[in-house]
Amino acid sequence: MKRRAITVIVALLVLAPLLGLIPSTWTWNPRLFDTLTTTVSMIGVLTLLNHLIGYITGKAIAFRTGRPIRYMELLISLPLFLPVLLLSFGLYLTWIRLGLADQFIGVLLVLLLPTLPYTIRIYTNAFQALGEQMMEQMVLIEPSRFKRFLFLTGPMMRSAIQSVTLLVTVIALSQYALVILIGGGVVQMIALEAFPLYSGNSLVAAKEATIWLLVLPLLIYFVQLILLEGWVQVVRRLLDGRYDSARQ
Hints:
The chain is mainly alpha-helical and 248 residues long. It contains 13 helices and no strands.
């Protein structure tokens, strides 16, 4: 009974503020299309980079100890201890010299600051959960790194992959100061569209933009869930076929 009551209270605390976001009328804002295209592209590339860098780095430091590894972990975790906006001020001056300010790639690289430390930590914990012996057995079963990830490591780390994708999506969508500073208003994302509307008189348009901030993580999560489930099913069928042919 207490558990149900706590669940109801938590649900109300989460859902009640969202009820005020439902617009009374719905009118499509044409500016949202370009904003959505840029936002989805940014999230896609950012998620891919986080998975790639986080997987390699997490695997490299998961089973190693020593002072260099501790220094590396401290360096990786530095954006978690220092305000990201403070680091971005220094990067902004560097980005201007390199010609990356007000560019898609400049915003993409700066968004790695608040996302990559969490990604590396998630992958490090995932590899440690699998264990060093399990990783060594995988190498003996499948020497090829790509096939080993495709058939063994990837499906076993499905929860970590889901967590990283959702985390990167939410963090990227919630960044306003970084995007406006590095992007200079040229690189438009939904957060840049929503916040100014709330300070103005376009409340309906602001609610529509905010709904997309809620819908996009859900869409990306369920699309990823379907893709990962399909991946696991295909791997199971392929491995079953290999096992049956080996028995024959």
